[in-house]
Specification:
Elements lengths: L1 H24 L4 H5 L1 H8 L18 E12 L2 E4 L3 E2 L2 H9 L5 H13 L6 H11 L9 H4 L2 H25 L4 E12 L16 E5 L13
Antiparallel strand pairs: 1-2, 1-3, 1-4, 4-5
Helix pairs in contact: 1-3, 4-5, 5-8
Length: 220
């Protein structure tokens, strides 16, 4: 009997998941508009569908996430160095694909991609502004809007929660007073310069503000 009950709940779970995913990936419609907040809450960041691999302009940078903290220990207050949050996860994931690391790696990257996402129409306007075909002042309010600010706020919140969970695992016996995240976007080496040792690689740094802990549980 319990197997039948488990199978029923499993089927209902699959139906719910694929229904929400279908609505999430469809173009704008009344259902999606009405339940947009609930749908995004369920889908992002773990189930976000990202088709950049097949896009005309696929991902062209490598992202690295670092965190440092002010911690209270028996020796007093100290500030840690920058800790890489993802390198060891990448290594463990490559060694064994059937581990939680595969999902964990998606969280900060998907969360940060929220701040980069824009409506297709706005993307076209931005492109024309950069090409000099449109006046930037006339479209400034459209480009920088409240929805974008909300995306950035949500992105920062998710990345900071991930960073705090990482710190709780790294320093289980210390009290974390404050912490901050650093994102480094690195451009890849051009194919024409593969093997060249002195190639200058463009790097962009995004340093978050200091944050107070929110009592997030440790990652491991």
């Amino acid at each position: 009997m319990w197997k039948k009950i488990a199978a029923i709940f499993l089927c209902l779970g699959f139906i719910f998941h694929f229904t929400v995913t279908l609505i999430y990936n469809t173009p704008s419609n009344p259902i999606k508009a009405k339940y947009n907040q609930q749908i995004n809450f369920y889908m992002e960041p773990l189930f976000t569908q990202n088709w950049k691999l097949f896009a005309p302009t696929p991902v062209s940078t490598n992202s690295q996430f670092y965190v440092k903290a002010k911690i209270q220990s028996a020796d007093g207050v100290t500030t840690t160095g920058w800790l890489d949050m993802l390198d060891y996860m990448v290594e463990n994931n490559q060694a064994n694909r059937f581990t939680p690391y595969n999902r964990l790696l998606r969280i900060p990257r998907s969360a940060y991609s929220l701040r980069l996402e824009r409506d297709e129409t706005i993307q076209k306007i931005i492109s024309k502004v950069h090409e000099g075909k449109l006046d930037q002042e006339k479209y400034e309010k459209l480009i920088v809007n409240e929805e974008k600010d909300a995306q950035v706020e949500m992105s920062n919140k998710l990345v900071n929660r991930f960073a705090e969970a990482h710190l709780k695992s790294a320093y289980p016996d210390s009290d974390i007073l404050e912490f901050k995240v650093l994102l480094v976007e690195t451009s890849p080496v051009p194919f024409s310069k593969n093997g060249v040792s002195d190639v200058e690689i463009d790097k962009q740094y995004v340093e978050f503000d200091w944050e107070k802990p929110q009592n997030i549980v440790s990652m491991f």
